[in-house]
Design goal:
Number of helices: 4
Radius of gyration: 12 Å
Strand content: under 5%
Mean pLDDT: 96
Largest sheet: none
Distance between the termini: 25 Å
Length: about 70
């Protein structure tokens, strides 16, 4: 997959992750976006080889929540 296609997919996925963060943590959109974009998970999502882009926004949210809570992604 080329980088443009990957970023198009990420652009479709990220609003769902951000919405889950807002709902779960009671935070605003800007704070939720900062949490996502500054996370290790997001850097891995941008790496096509990890294939994380294939996961649902809810599953990615769960992984991000784990990272925020424990500092790790399992």
């Amino acid at each position: 997959m080329n980088q443009d296609n990957l970023y198009s997919i990420i652009a479709i996925i990220t609003p769902g992750i951000i919405q889950h963060l807002m709902d779960d943590r009671g935070i605003n959109e800007e704070t939720a976006a900062e949490l996502l974009y500054n996370s290790h998970l997001y850097s891995k999502l941008e790496d096509e080889e990890t294939k994380l882009w294939r996961l649902s926004p809810l599953t990615l949210f769960d992984l991000l929540n784990e990272e925020i809570t424990t500092g790790k992604i399992t």
